[in-house]
Amino acid sequence: MYSEKVMDHFQNPRNVGEIEGASGTGTVGNAKCGDIMRIYLDIDENHVIQDVKFKTFGCGAAVATSSMATEMVKGKTIEEAMQVTNKAVCEALDGLPPAKIHCSLLAEEAIHAALWDYAEKNHIVIEGLEKPKTDIGEEEVEEEY
Ligand code: FES
To answer: Which of 55, 102, 104 to mutate to test the pocket of ligand 1 (most atoms within 8 A of CB)?
Structure first.
């Protein structure tokens, strides 16, 4: 039911932990299941994400998608990180069962929330970034993966 990549990232999640004095921190909850995700970003003066960590109270799919998402944004600029959608993360993991797609939203939304926090602290505007919702998953996600 799960791809090998999902199982790998679930069993050996990358970038678990926290960053003290992070440039931006974002926490979101999934309204469907009540699970929670927190992302920490360390961003340098050139707007490059030098480090990223996550902590979650979430299911295996949430762990795997967050692990993959953190790998995909690390070393990227903010603009590049904005392209890392939950769809891109699911594809990188060779797909998720439809019932677990909502779990992958946690990572994307938590990264956006952390970027929002960074933007607010530094008085900058990140193109395409909308104020994050704290609770996600209320609307149906298009399950087209
Ligand atoms: Fe809650 Fe997957 S069931 S994040």
So the answer is: 102
With a Cβ cut-off of 6 Å, ligand 1 is lined by 30, 33, 35, 58-59, 61-62, 103, 106
Q: What is the pLDDT along the chain (145 residues), one digit of tens a residue?
A: 899 999 999 999 999 999 999 999 999 998 888 999 999 999 999 999 999 999 999 999 999 999 999 999 999 999 999 999 999 999 999 999 999 988 989 999 999 999 999 999 999 999 999 988 877 765 545 554 4
Report the predicted TM-score, pTM, of the whole model to 2 decimal places: 0.91
Q: Return all residues near 80 (Cβ < 8 A) that are at least 6 apart.
A: 73
Distance CA 38, CA 113 (A): 9
CA distance 99 to 93: 15
Closest to 89 measured CA to CA, from 63, 61, 68: 68
Pairing, β 36-43 against β 49-57: antiparallel
| Helices then strands, each counted (H, E), the chain | 5, 4
